[in-house]
Amino acid sequence: MLSPLPASTASHSSRRRRVVGGRSWLRTALNSPFSPGSDNVPEIWAGRTEQLSDWRDIVRPRRLAGLPERGRTILGEAGLGKSALVRRIARDAAANGDWVTSQLRIPSGADPLKLVASAILKLAGEAGLASSRKQKIRDALSRVQAVAVSGMSLTLHQQSGPEPYVVLTELLVEVGRAAMARGDVMVLIHVKVQNITGDKALSQLLIALGDALVHEETITAPGGIAVLRSLPIAVYLTGPPDFADVAGARTGATFARRFKTTLLSAIDDEDLASALQPFVIRGWAVPDDLGGTNQVHMEPDAVTAIIDLCRGEPFLFQLAGEQAWYAGSTDLITRSQVLAGWRAARSEAVTHVERILDRLPGREREFLQVMAELPSKERTLSRIAQEMGHSKPTAAGPTSQRLDTVRGIIERGKPYTFRHRAVEAFLTSDWPDVV
Hints:
Blueprint: H1 7-16, E1 18-20, E2 23-25, H2 49-64, E3 71-75, H3 82-95, E4 99-100, E5 104-105, H4 112-126, H5 135-148, H6 164-182, E6 187-192, H7 199-214, E7 216-221, E8 225-230, E9 233-239, H8 243-251, H9 253-258, E10 259-263, H10 269-281, E11 284-287, E12 293-298, H11 300-310, H12 314-326, E13 332-333, H13 335-358, H14 362-373, H15 381-387, H16 397-406, E14 410-411, E15 417-418, H17 421-428
Parallel strand pairs: 3-9, 3-10, 4-6, 5-6, 6-9, 12-13
Antiparallel strand pairs: 1-2, 7-8, 11-12, 14-15
Helix pairs in contact: 4-5, 4-6, 5-6, 6-7, 10-11, 11-12, 11-13, 12-13
């Protein structure tokens, strides 16, 4: 149990609490550290150490050293924190002085090459490249600006000269050369790809980004030896779990050679507990009205409740924490407050999981429903296929494969198990209801 504050400290803390309508409030909407669904970097960060280490220990050092390294594609169902993860990487990159684009959202029907070109133009300006004396940079900037700023579509407007994606690649290469000349700067590009529907638009974008990634420059090494080196450019794409299949179908093996795909899954309970440990041990600091801070603590049972309710989903983790924060006003978050807050968020949790299920084709949804209704030890392909009305297990094989390798919802083993724990809880229990 937490030790009580000394009387003098407790009194001092009480004086600093915000008083609203005659009531003392320590936890408000303005100081909540939880932020569900806002695509920002949450103050309470949990897990994803493997992907963060991949950027810090592999992608950045290899590209800075001129070694080839593929771009990264981060995929997963809604709520798994794809954008938040890459925003965290981008924030760390910017802190190191790297040149980083903002997250590039591609609205449905928009021209992705135009939006990426505009972002690179902005990045070049912020990096001081627009005023560079290098003629190639000025030429590349003006060529892209002529189409990116004109309001005409890069991918659809017919014009003489090279294809628009070639112009974009040239600009990326020139910016990469400028970063290489600096010696310690990366160019980081983040594109959300889920709304790119046109085959030609997606193909041109992937080719432009991929060509910049594989471009090599000839430099002179010590001793006068000419060697090839890659440019310090990194590309992160985020999207739905089936994007790799779609991209591969439209660009062939080129996509797989140029981008490494990670399919995100639920966060381990241990990582979630570690993220909330500061609340238990020392408390979470919140500012008061006198220029100081107060500490908000959390009962261990409250931590356990949040972990149990969110089922490893980053969005649900932030949602449960946020509602628990709003469910009380004192310096201690209790289990009863977690449950009370979750009841207020129940409909949003249901909508979140139903949205995932509604995206699935009918055959995949049926497979999950049948699998959920079987006892856990009987969840084999042959038994699931039988319950679905198939005469042979192989008839359900492609569906199970997509749910595993493409969707990341199940794991084929002996027996089959659910990887997406919120989907499992929704289909097999009374979750998200609480007593």
